[in-house]
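Q: Got a minute? One more chain.
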Amino acid sequence: MDIDNYFEKNREHILSEWFKLLKLPSLGADPLRLSDCARTAAWLKKYLKAMGFEVEIRIPHQGLPVPVLFAERVSSECDTTVLFYGHYDVQPADPAEKWESPPFEPCLRDGRVYARGAQDNKGQSFAFIQGLRALIEEGESIPTIRLIIEGQEESGSAGLLEMVPHLGDQIRSDVLLVSDTCCAGNGQPAIIAALRGIQNMTVTLKGPDYDLHSGVHGGVAPNPAQGLARLLATLHNQDGSIAVAEFCDGMIEPTEEERSLANRDQLSADAYQAETGCPPLGGERALPPVERAGFYPTIEVNGIFSGHTGTGPKTIIPSEATAKLSMRLVPGQQIERTLTALKKHLVSNCPPGLEISFSEIVKGAPGFRLAVNTPIFQIAERVLRDMDSRGAVFRWEGASIPIIATLRQYSGAAPLLVGFGREEDRIHCPNESFGIDQFKQVMQWSYSILSALAF
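A: Always. Here it is, folded:
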């Protein structure tokens, strides 16, 4: 099938339904948006039922009751079972003032759709579903398809992590497909050979009982904002390496083959700066950037807030200061050990006179790494070469999809992560977007890989 022709023939339907999905502000980490998450799951259920799927929505027993959607379409002609994973939750839209158009009012400009979730992951998931829809309409043999689409990926997948060990044969599959990743920097298709794990926590330093006058109390009362700055500076050594004792224990170093393959996708420092606006100087600077991102752990400060942040001066010593941290983990690191090590480090380095506390702790999930010579990767390489004569590269992705390692363990499926995101999509940032050309690439991938797996 010519996917370009299919898209143009069905353009009005595809864009209309995609926009309906993007308009729903499904922030799975926000208790105030639970009703929006429920509406999103209900919308997806209705859409998939119309495609012939049996659909069930389940609510987690622990944490926020954010719905998880399970769908299945059984094939009577093919013995292969494919499990597709995606997520409908999105990142917060702040800072709202930096959006050129409202984040939950999708806008098509210059061949790109702008909205929160346009790419991550409503765009890629919906495009995958459209490729599947084209295959169903063509009447060709397809595998049994199982879909899991959740609403808490952006905050750690706590609900689904609790469910998966109890699902048994309901998720047993041969292949696990995910379209929530990016292609290479030059636009070449990429097969993801690894993902880092992720953890999160919020750290708060408490000083005086209330904000103090900085003239009366300056030089006397301990300042939580200054103390937090000093504390966070202890997390890394001067060369950018992690300074937290025992945090990196057990990590598995990449092989020389993995290093060699990864460095084929290396962006030059100039290209990285042109793309992001900054040089690639974060992390352990003795290592190439592509290795830092794919093979080594990180501790990053995601946000700091304290005291007066409005217009003009306000001469105070703030009563408290807070930082949000995220940690990316690699194979061999143990999630309990890394959290314990980080908390121990922060407590032991807390400046005198300040009290430290921890909240919003997400234990998260470990990282994983896959062998590059597996049969499923060989099938994927053939499909991607048909799509792009350059073929595919392997990437060791620095980002995280928390549930993948657990789904792999309990489903028995071989993971195959291929997505068509680009840096210009600006996921997690203002003005997130997804190109129509990228949407069609995901459709083509979905159509072609499912056809190839129908054996």
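A: Residues 34-50 form the longest helix (17 residues).
Q: Perfect, thanks.
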